[in-house]
Design brief:
It contains 17 helices and 13 strands. By secondary structure, the chain is α+β, with helices and mostly antiparallel strands.
Length: about 500
């Protein structure tokens, strides 16, 4: 190596060290003005989380909130994190048109999701959001209801074969149902996950989500250089290849199919299998919207489309799995709630066996309250992450540049200052005449809020209603003896010990 090259490396190293030192010093200075636990050199507050199991991490955060208040700071190694459960602070944050960047933890998804809607920002995010929003138009959502119904029938049939009266862990079954739904809705193809849970694609989804969960709080796996040397990185690479290959095949087949139709997509033709055994259907899917979209007059390329399809696959199956599982658990746990939901289903549907419509589901107003109450206690995304690229002051608290901001939706939902008797499951608290519990709307944000709210909220609620109706038409639910969920907050709120319910045959 030449002397000149050595000098250049030394100069850049010194500049980098100075910049890093200034940034960290500023974070430390501002962090000292915000309540939080004592920090240690290099590890910050990492000692609070090292060796803790995922459920214990949730408990640690809860203790920090109780001890230091609704706006507190921690250091995960050298990473500054502001943890917020104050609705007034949350309102300013989520309403901002500038504080929309996702936190560092979301970058762990980038190898899979690329620069899709979940992770991108700026002009690209705005254009992608504009393209994708029509996907959730009433007419397209109405088509998805047919998918919900079909996959719900499969879910019920799978349950019937399992002696459900003896008790079943429904979480893995709901995962496969949600995966089938989102694959059909996003790509217009079939994964047959419920009937083939050992498929390469299904296993790849399990592997990639497991790796992502491991990285969240593992001190050694968070830095990219350390992660690349781990076994988890090898697992991730293998899983991503399977997922990307599958998505690429579907995109190419679907694009060719549209070209054969001279760019004219017939939304009224019912599905039949074409091309490569992928089961592609001749009706509008999320993928079709992307294939026909343009940005500045140019169509999206296959990489752009894959980013959004993979994002939809991730967000649309993991989050709804959590929501559906906890919804069925709460219905099973509270017999009076179950009775009222069943009565409402009987009133709306009677003995009708036709495929429901969105209007039918809109008439299930009590079930809507049950879903809202479930999401209060068990929000699918327990912590919403943001990143402050520039130094900013909110409500007299200055947040340093580069800081992560965590909004504790799970903890706000259980805050007695926001909800009366928060540990009691009471759907009526969300009735219009009982709206006093939610004086500040930003105290209840299970689907986030503001410009970066969950674009698939309507889709998710429809799916939850559909599977609840399907299950309750066929079964009376109860909770297996001695079962209580052990919660862990990763990217998604999940029960470490599954969701164990009993199902007794019922015929509405």
């Amino acid at each position: 190596m030449s002397l000149e090259l050595v000098l250049i490396c030394v100069i850049f190293s010194v500049i980098g060290a100075i910049v890093w030192h200034d940034k960290f010093s500023r974070q430390a200075t501002l962090g000292a003005k915000i309540r939080g636990p004592s920090t240690y050199p290099l590890i910050g507050n990492g000692n609070l989380f090292v060796g803790a199991s995922p459920p214990e991490i949730l408990q640690v955060i809860g203790k920090l909130v109780k001890e230091y208040g609704k706006v507190l700071r921690v250091f995960l190694g050298l990473d500054f994190m502001l943890f917020v459960t104050d609705p007034k602070f949350v309102e300013v944050l989520l309403s901002s048109n500038t504080l929309i960047d996702k936190s560092k933890e979301y970058t762990f998804l980038r190898n899979w999701l690329g620069d899709g809607l979940l992770l991108t920002t700026g002009k690209k995010w705005q254009s992608r959001r504009k393209i994708i929003t029509p996907t959730f138009h009433f007419k397209i959502l109405e088509q998805f209801v047919e998918v919900f119904d079909k996959q719900g029938n499969t879910f019920v049939n799978v349950l019937k074969k399992m002696k459900p009266e003896e008790g079943v862990d429904i979480y893995p079954l709901v995962t496969l149902y949600a995966l089938d739904v989102i694959c059909d809705s996003a790509m217009g193809t079939t994964a047959n996950a419920q009937l083939n849970s050992n498929s390469e694609y299904v296993q790849a989804v399990k592997d990639i989500t497991n790796v992502l969960h491991l990285r969240m709080f593992d001190f050694l796996l968070r830095p990219e250089p350390f992660f690349k040397l781990s076994r988890s990185a090898t697992r991730e690479k293998k899983a991503i290849k399977v997922l990307h290959d599958f998505t690429d095949r579907v995109i190419v087949a679907r694009r060719n199919d549209l070209m054969q139709q001279n760019g004219k997509h017939d939304e009224n033709r019912n599905g039949h299998v074409v091309d490569d055994g992928l089961g592609i259907k001749k009706k509008m899917a999320f993928l079709d919207v992307l294939l026909q979209a343009t940005v500045d007059g140019k169509p999206l390329n296959n990489m752009d489309i894959r980013e959004e399809v993979d994002t939809f696959m991730f967000e649309g199956h993991d989050t709804t799995t959590s929501g559906i599982s906890f919804l069925l658990y709460n219905i099973a746990l509270h017999s009076d709630v179950q009775r009222r939901v069943v009565e409402e289903i009987r009133d709306v549907f009677g003995t009708d066996t036709r495929i429901p419509t969105i209007s039918d589901f809109n008439n299930l107003q009590y079930l809507d309250l049950v879903i809202k109450e479930t999401m209060r206690l068990y929000p699918s995304v327990p912590i919403i992450g943001r990143q402050s690229e520039k130094e900013v002051t909110i409500n007299d608290i200055t947040i340093p540049a580069g800081a992560g901001i965590a909004i504790g939706t799970y903890f706000m939902g259980r805050d007695p200052d926001l909800f009366t008797d928060p540990e009691i499951f009471n759907p009526e608290r969300f009735a219009v005449e009982r709206s006093g519990d939610t004086q500040n709307l930003f105290g209840y944000v299970p689907f986030s809020a503001g410009p970066r709210n969950c674009i698939g909220q309507k889709f998710a609620i429809l799916e939850m209603k559909s599977i609840a109706v399907k299950v309750l038409k066929n079964f009376e639910l109860s909770v297996q003896e001695d079962y209580k969920p052990i919660l862990m907050a990763e990217i998604i709120l999940r029960p470490e010990n599954g969701v164990h319910l009993k199902f007794k045959a019922r015929q509405l």
